[in-house]
Here is the input.
Amino acid sequence: MIEMTTKSLRRKVENIDSLPTIPSTLKQISKIIGDPSISLKKIGEFISNDPALTTKVLKMVNSAFYGFPGRISSVSHATVLLGSNVIRGLIVGVSVFEVMQKAMLGLWQHSLGCAVTSRIMAKRKGLKNYDDVYVAGLLHDIGKVILILEFSKEYKKAMNEAEIKDITIFEAERDHFVTNHAYIGSWLAEKWLFPRNLIEVIKYHHNPRLSKNAPIETAIVHLADILIRAMGVGFAGDSFVPAVDPIAFEALNLSKMDLKEILKEMEDSLELTEEVYL
Amino acid sequence: MRKIPIDKLEPGMKLARSITKGNMVLLGKDTELAETLIRRIQNIGVDSVYIYGPSQQGIPKDEALTQMEERFKNIENRPYMNLLKDVVREHIEGLYD
Here is the structure.
């Protein structure tokens, strides 16, 4: 168990820009994304100075999954099409997961799969902001990244415990940290000035019934997380499917037929996104 | 949908994704392939194309189902988990038909 109060842990997480364990590219991105005085144009310019990051973000928005006709050739063009919150989310997603590819193999694939599945469900439920739900799916486990980078020894212990005790990583985290990856992720999302709904989805993706402002979006990401694990896509720190929250599941009102169609669509879309695996 | 090499194309298969070169669409999605089209595809310089149909699976069906059972083993008695498991099982089985 890490001896640390919730308050001091939170302070540490919020200081991500100065933690020695955090790679410098991520620190820079974090600083820029979280600064309210920096315009999106400036963020775009910063990204354009990093060709590798630009390529990855553009690869993502140009993936056949998004279905834009023709190619999007610049970050600013992508911003016009998808909106600044979506682009900020994609930038964070791409840069954060890149630095931790080795620390938890498969988390990027899990996150991308969850994003794709969330977008499919959001569209099916008639939500207009399905790209925001995609970003929520992409970033829902962002708290795990900081836990792995900052408390790598302890987090590995938690992962071992999950394996030995046959429990999920979310359950194992309880024995090692004062809080869990969902809350930690929401602190980061707040620091980065992400929209209220996105913060809530990240915070409550394991307890979707607690979400007041975005109950449907949270229920969608919660179920997408379960479905992507059920299909065995990627790795999120343990080998088990978590139980669905019955209230959230009922709120989504999906028939067996709906679920079958969602899985089918998932399968096709995941093939389309293969090209953006980092 | 699956990606197959151009020398494995057969008449009657249907494109699941357009074949493009740069910004130009050479053959649209949903085109049904006849012999002549297949020969044309083999000459345009692409290695593989996407066609409709179940994707090829990396592991045998029994193994895929056993692994799936293992992933669900702790929560089978929880509400709706049997429904979700059935849907996933049927989906995985469908990939091998």
Remarks:
- The first helix of chain B runs from residue 35 to 42.
